[in-house]
């Protein structure tokens, strides 16, 4: 059976439109399917979990943005059912990082007939993330974005991916950098004046920012980007370079790779996983090699 989990609210209603289009294609092609619509945050986790316990499911296709893909992945972890996706959100970084076509008909093709493969995932508290997590400035930006009214308007204008840039400037003037101590694969390091730490499984987050340009979702490690010892003004100047991934050559950036990471900080750093708030420091992240099937 082919299952769809649809977040009609994603991308400010884009999820609904994409589903209507996909539904028409499925009927035209005479493809049998089942569909469940999410009714609230975290509902997709419950739905995917319950589907994963049924026999005869070939694929679960998420229609929504990164939040929906994150939830479906959390529901499917531990099963052999692959996750497919048809992007309908504001950021769609998962689709960008895994070459899922933007056009719904092509994304549907890939989800139905593409090759099943395993990717790494990263566990953080009791959740897993597939794109990236971020602590500090990043976590605050994710929190502000999720609550933002301008998200709706920017989505409406087809500029949804700029939500994070608007939030960046909102958080910039109030945020205070902190002292951080990390243990990565048993090696301890300290950093002062830390703005953010991003841990990435794919290069993109925040609507196309290439935060860890070398991240690969099947290499058994996550990539870490630490931004520290930089003034607010220089941070603003660095932002455009993040879209090209060339920020990593700046001396305010430290990049690392690892399988296990513990982060402690003088003041708590809000933490997001795939754009959803998952806690605050102290926090531990562990790679689960080949932990999820995708298609
Ligand atoms: N019926 C619903 N009503 C309101 N929110 C919902 C509903 N179903 C799911 N959600 C929540 O909507 C949130 C946003 O969804 P999603 O991330 O897929 O879209 P987006 O924010 O537009 O896209 P992106 O994450 O790519 O920027 C998710 O955190 C999800 O839990």
Strand-helix topology:
Elements: E1 2-6, H1 14-28, E2 34-37, H2 43-52, E3 59-64, H3 66-76, E4 83-87, H4 93-97, H5 104-113, E5 117-124, E6 127-129, E7 132-136, H6 137-147, H7 150-156, H8 163-172, E8 178-184, E9 187-200, E10 204-205, E11 209-210, E12 222-228, H9 232-242, E13 253-258, E14 260-265, E15 270-273, E16 276-280, E17 283-294
Parallel strand pairs: 1-2, 1-3, 3-4
Antiparallel strand pairs: 5-6, 5-17, 7-9, 7-15, 8-9, 8-14, 9-12, 10-11, 12-13, 14-17, 15-16
Helix pairs in contact: 2-3, 6-8
Bound molecules: adenosine-5'-triphosphate (ATP).
Short overview:
The protein is α+β, with helices and mostly antiparallel strands and 295 residues long. It has helices at 14-28, 43-52, 66-76, 93-97, 104-113, 137-147, 150-156, 163-172, 232-242; strands at residues 2-6, 34-37, 59-64, 83-87, 117-124, 127-129, 132-136, 178-184, 187-200, 204-205, 209-210, 222-228, 253-258, 260-265, 270-273, 276-280, 283-294. The strands form three sheets. Strands 5, 6, 7, 8, 9, 12, 13, 14, 15, 16 and 17 form an eleven-stranded antiparallel sheet that branches.
Describe the structure.
The protein is an alpha+beta fold and 295 residues long. The protein is built from nine helices and 17 strands. It has helices spanning 14-28, 43-52, 66-76, 93-97, 104-113, 137-147, 150-156, 163-172, 232-242; strands spanning 2-6, 34-37, 59-64, 83-87, 117-124, 127-129, 132-136, 178-184, 187-200, 204-205, 209-210, 222-228, 253-258, 260-265, 270-273, 276-280, 283-294. The strands form three sheets. Strands 5, 6, 7, 8, 9, 12, 13, 14, 15, 16 and 17 form an eleven-stranded antiparallel beta sheet that branches. The chain has a four-stranded parallel beta sheet with strand order 2-1-3-4, with helices on both faces. The longest helix is centred in the N-terminal third of the chain and has 15 residues, at 14-28. The two termini are 15 Å apart. The model has no long low-confidence stretch (mean pLDDT 94). Bound molecules: adenosine-5'-triphosphate. Adenosine-5'-triphosphate binds at residues 7, 9-11, 38-43, 64-68, 71, 89-92, 275-276. Its cofactor is Mg(2+). Belongs to the diacylglycerol/lipid kinase family.
């Amino acid at each position: 059976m082919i299952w769809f989990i649809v977040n009609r609210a994603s991308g400010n209603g884009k999820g609904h439109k994409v589903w209507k289009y996909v539904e028409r294609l499925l009927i035209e092609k005479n493809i049998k399917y089942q569909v469940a619509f999410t009714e609230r945050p975290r509902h997709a986790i419950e739905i995917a979990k319950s589907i994963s316990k049924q026999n005869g499911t070939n694929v679960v296709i998420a229609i929504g943005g990164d939040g929906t893909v994150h939830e479906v992945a959390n529901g499917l972890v531990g099963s052999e059912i692959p996750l497919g996706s048809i992007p309908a959100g504001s950021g769609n970084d998962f689709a960008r990082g895994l070459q899922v076509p933007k056009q719904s008909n092509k994304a549907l093709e890939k989800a139905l007939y593409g090759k099943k493969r395993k990717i790494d995932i990263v566990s953080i508290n009791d959740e897993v993330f597939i794109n990236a997590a971020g602590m500090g400035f990043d976590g605050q930006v994710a929190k502000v974005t999720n609550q933002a009214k301008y998200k709706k308007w920017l989505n409406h204008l087809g500029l949804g991916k700029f939500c994070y840039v608007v939030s960046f400037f909102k958080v910039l003037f109030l945020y205070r950098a902190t002292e951080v101590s990390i243990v990565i694969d048993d090696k301890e390091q300290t950093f002062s004046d830390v703005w953010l730490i991003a841990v990435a499984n794919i290069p993109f987050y925040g609507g196309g920012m290439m935060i860890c340009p070398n991240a690969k979702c099947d290499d058994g490690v996550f990539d870490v980007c630490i931004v520290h010892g930089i003034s607010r003004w220089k941070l603003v100047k660095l932002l455009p370079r993040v879209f090209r991934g060339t920020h990593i050559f700046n001396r305010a950036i430290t990049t690392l790779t690892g399988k296990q990471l513990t982060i402690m900080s003088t003041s708590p750093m809000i933490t997001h996983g795939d754009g959803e708030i998952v806690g605050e420091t102290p926090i531990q992240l562990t790679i689960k090699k080949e932990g999820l099937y995708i298609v």
